[in-house]
Amino acid sequence: MKFDLSMVSVLLAAFAPFLVLFFAIFWDRRQQKHTEKPPQSEKLLRPPGFSLSLRLEKISDKFMDLILVAMMFSAAGGGGAFVFAILLGEHAPFSYLIIPFLIAGIFIGICLWVTLRAFNLFREGRNIRLGISGEQAVAESLNEAADCGFRAFHDLPAEETWNIDHVAVGSRGVFLIETKACRRRGSKNGQAAHEIIFDGEFLQFPFFRTNKPIEQAKRNAKWLSNYLRNKTGEPVEVFPLVVLPGWFIKNTEKGNFGVNVMNANYLPGFLRRQAENIEPAQVRRIITALDEKCRTVEF
User: CA torsion 258→260→261→265, rounded to 10°?
Assistant: First the structure.
């Protein structure tokens, strides 16, 4: 039983691409961390979807790491299978066959498990990209309301584990906007596939029913009202909104709801129709407090 040079060459060829790519990425990350510096020290305001963008970046890095690990175990499993095939062709005894067989099976199994994890990260990244697009759509709508004096802030960091999607501030009030981007998945019970029915408490999608966005907007508005009161020294009423880009909202009840629900295209007109109820001096104090809270992005 002999191992010729061709066998060693195949094994080296299987591992070489992974090793080269692994060390290249490791070296590039190390150089970027220790040698590159931003061109300015002033921090920038958080853009729409900033927290989601950070999550997507981490997921992308982890996805790449898992792909590299899968490549390594795939090569190891392939090497074990190659040795097993050589030994089997030379009619080696069973005690010689069992080791490369186990190596191939274990490494291929690990490769499949890592690949499945990478696929789950891929799906999570796809959902995050949808969320980013939704927040960008709402940000564009808020830009249209700037002509009536509204200043918009995005991705306001509330506490370590959560953030507020958007805040619009002007003499017409302070509005907290919770964005929900959802894909359409068909319809049932005769409800249109593009329609959401809102009864003042629950959102009835074509495929499920929930009140979580409503309750979330209420909690966030209460937190923001307390935060602004502590920062400015005066009471600030915050009006919660839930905005669902791309959906038609059908209200089955009339009245003043605790949370208003609307399409992103409806948002600018809604803000323009509000009556002025805050003095300009107070608006400036609120803007200063929010600017300080949202200016966290390094250049």
Answer: -170
The residue extents of the domains of the chain are 5-135, 149-297
Q: Are 206 and 188 in contact (CB under 8 A)?
A: yes
Structure tokens at 6: 């061709």
Tell me yes or no: is domain 149-297 CATH 3.90.1720.
no
Both tokens of 248, joined, read 């038609």
CA distance 47 to 168: 14
Separation of alpha carbons 88 and 82, rounded Å: 10
Task: Return d(Cα 134, Cα 165) in angstroms, integer.
Answer: 10
pLDDT tens digits along 18-63: 667 777 877 887 777 666 666 666 889 999 999 999 999 999 989 9
Distance CA 166, CA 3 (A): 65
- What tens digit of pLDDT does each residue of 224-248 get? 999 999 999 999 999 999 999 999 9
Cα–Cα distance, 151 to 154 (Å, whole number): 10
- In degrees and rounded to multiples of 5, residue 133 shows phi and psi of -60, -40
CA distance 83 to 73: 15
Neighbour-count burial of 160, counting CB atoms closer than 10 A to its CB (0-12 exposed, 13-18 middle, 19+ buried): exposed
Pairing of strands 195-198, 248-251: parallel
Helix (H) or strand (E) holding 115: helix 94-144
Which parts of 205-288 are beta strand (E)?
209-210, 238-243, 248-251, 260-262
Cβ atoms of 18 and 78 within 8 Å: the answer is no
Place of tokens 């600030």: 236
What's the distance, CA 189 to chain centroid? 31
CA distance 36 to 290: 30
In 3-state terms, what secondary structure has residue 143? helix
